Amino acid sequence: MVEWNALWEGYGWPLTVIIGQILLVAVGVLVSLAFLLLADRKIWAAVQLRRGPNVVGPFGLLQSFADFFKFALKEIIIPDGANKGVFLLAPLITFVLAFIAWAVIPFADGWVISDINVGILYIFAISSLGVYGIVMGGWASNSKYPFLGSLRSAAQMVSYEVSIGFVMVTVLLCAGSLNLSEIVRAQKNIWFFIPLFPMFVIFLVSALAETNRPPFDLAEAESELVAGYQTEYSSTPFLLFMIGEYLNIVLMCAMTVILFLGGWLPPFDMAPFTYVPEIVWFILKILLVFFFFAMVKAFVPRYRYDQLMRLGWKVFLPFSLVWVVVTAGVLTAFDLAP
């Protein structure tokens, strides 16, 4: 035990502090997720001039917790023809991968579990692995609708990861670092969404497609593929899929804030803005981006699948590639490269 603690102390922290940080982030993200899910439903209801959840708890604040207990206490039903091991492993993989991506997210200056130098590559690698849980869930169900839904979702996620990758490259050119904290510090004078506004728009739309959010929720369109890869799931496995999906949504909101909206930095480096704690600015910005995601769900009609793929491969990919070249050229020509 002493040797194990000594190993972690070599990295600057004892093992107990590392575990405490992990638990704090995990519990904080899960609790905030419950209220963000409620906010998503409330915003959608307000746009449609209806009340939304308003019975369980004051103003419906406990609705998400009631849903959690309902899912946790229901019976787990596994289809007879399903591959039971893979069927139960798929939602667990989706849940775990969605969680471990938060290890490199800086909530404030120095407030990060693992401040690694290749944080942005770590996020990109973890988000790419998320496809496996969805494909496994669709295949293991041994049903045509989930299988088609999982293939559709995998193709969609892979397609939009390409444009997201090029968007990240433009940010890296401007920041000169792969470290997420350094990217935030590089925006002290100007937030990157101003000089890289087209990339900011592409990242937002690609984040919607990457996380299967409307209007790009073709993998689970009720009129076409029932509930997609989740069709045969119920109870806790379905809950794990849902939590993993919303964790990825909030992660994309956090990445938008870090890459383009200055992370924990205040809008103006002057009083009274500097009196507000850094983590409060970070949370407020995440809520702003999440509100945009929720509003898009409410008023943008669903795309056809051919329109979805054409947007990713014929519009976003060439445009983002050209913008990478333009950004590199401008930084080199005017000697602005960090």
Write the layout of secondary structure elements.
Layout: H1 2-9, H2 15-47, H3 63-73, H4 84-100, H5 119-140, H6 144-175, H7 180-185, H8 197-210, H9 222-225, H10 235-260, H11 278-299, H12 305-333
Helix pairs in contact: 2-10, 2-11, 3-10, 4-5, 4-10, 5-6, 6-8, 6-12, 8-10, 8-12, 10-11
Descriptive terms for the model:
0% strand, 338 residues, 12 helices, single chain, mainly alpha
Main β sheet profile: none
Work out the radius of gyration. 21 Å
Number of strands: 0
How far is the N terminus from the C terminus?
44 Å
Query: Structural class per helix/strand content?
Result: mainly alpha
What is the helix fraction of residues, given as a range? Answer: 55-70%
H/E element order = HHHHHHHHHHHH
Brief rundown of the structure:
This protein has 338 residues and is mostly helical. It is 66% helix and 0% strand. It has 12 helices and no strands.
Textual characterization of the structure:
By secondary structure, the chain is mainly alpha-helical. The N and C termini lie far apart (44 Å). It has twelve helices and no strands. The radius of gyration is 21 Å and the shape is globular.
